[in-house]
Amino acid sequence: MDNLTHSLIGVTLGRSMRSTSAARSRAAIWTAVIGNNFPDLDFLQSGLNGRFLSEGTMSYLLHHRGYSHTLVFAAIATPLIAWIGSFLGRDSKNWKSMVPLAFISLCLHMAADFLNNYGVHPFFPFNKNWFYGDTLFIVEPLLWFSLLPLAFLQLRNFIGRMIFLGAYAVVWGMIWLGPFFDLTFQLGLSAFGIFWLVWQYRSKTPMPAWVGLIGVISSFSAIHHKTHAKLTHEFENGIRSEASEKLVDLVLTVSPGNPACWNAWWVSVNAKKEMIARYGNWSWTPQFQAAATCHTQTTDSWAAPVRRPELEIKNGKLTEAQSRTDLAILGEYRGLLSEAEALAKKDCAFRQLLHFARIPFWDLNAQPPLAGDLRYDHGPKMSWAKVILGDPTQCLSNPPNWTPPNPLFVQMVDQ
Q1: Nearest to 82 by CA among 5, 163, 14
Q2: What was the pLDDT predicted at 415?
Q3: Residues with Cβ < 8 Å from 177, sequence gap 6 or more?
Q4: Which of 113, 149, 94, 142 is nearest to 37 (CA)?
Q5: Which of helix, strand or coil describes residue 307?
Q6: Where are the domains of the chain?
Q7: How far apart are CA 140 and CA 145, in angstroms?
Q8: Which of 185, 283, 325, 356 suits a disulfide with 181, CB 3.0-4.6 Å?
Q9: First-to-last CA distance in the chain?
């Protein structure tokens, strides 16, 4: 989740605390805001490994949402967050009263990050698995519209108000100038934003913010479960090309502000021991937006050797050969697991990548040879979710031992 949303959740939580003085009210807001952002300081872990903020490094891949996004870390960091929040609120003598709020704020950060398809592993070291919500896009304008009015209307600091006013400008620009929405959804989102601003202005309490926060998450979650069931059914009854194919994972991403439009990766394995990853879109409202033009990538969007169906897509646009408007299969990647196993034995970068990659790809014919995660393969250039094969300088001496999120590769990293 983006840090503005984390901060807005913190403001809403802090404003909801009953306080006996202005100092304690300030302390509550500071504690909640800091607690809702503090785990993201894990980017410093990359610096401690000598790879500060550099792209394409194993350090960032394995340490982001790492140890700082665990319940153990939350328990350790809680007293510090409570003291810092109380100090900034000029109520440091009562810092112990902020301890429960600090712990709740740290947990809310993990819960918000869980909602995306990046994943968290909050129960480490007792459980090393990744957990994914696949429910919200990392930036969700409906959450901004729900939470921004409370922060903007109740802040008395000029700089703070200008920051939140700028955030309002960004979300309006995303809706009306961005590529995600047609006119129907632009008008619907705009009406939602205006309604919540007016309601918050008249309410003077955090209730509209909580209703928006819980309502948006609940609605998207319900539609996610419906979409997951529908696309699993579609895989079993038409998407797979062989009866032997078994679905391993279904990775979903919803369009921001549009719960009717979903992007999917169907990850399967066949009798030939090939991992097959198919990329496509699903639209619950094809009468407004066809699946092929909904949350899609362009023809040159992958570094991985992804094959695009020529009869369905031409130059990134829907053709007459596409028989359905609610479902579009836009790309397919295949990789032999025997090849991946051999690569994992000899290449530490690929082996360590498997601890992160939910949909790993590898291309030995690329120049240079590449591997990465298809979730975040958004172009042919190197980026933070790709590694160069055969380069041992990318490998960490003591990498986190997260369980590989793709079960097809678990045994490969244990060899």
Answers
A1: 14
A2: 57
A3: none
A4: 113
A5: strand
A6: 1-133, 134-221, 222-336, 337-413
A7: 9
A8: 185
A9: 34
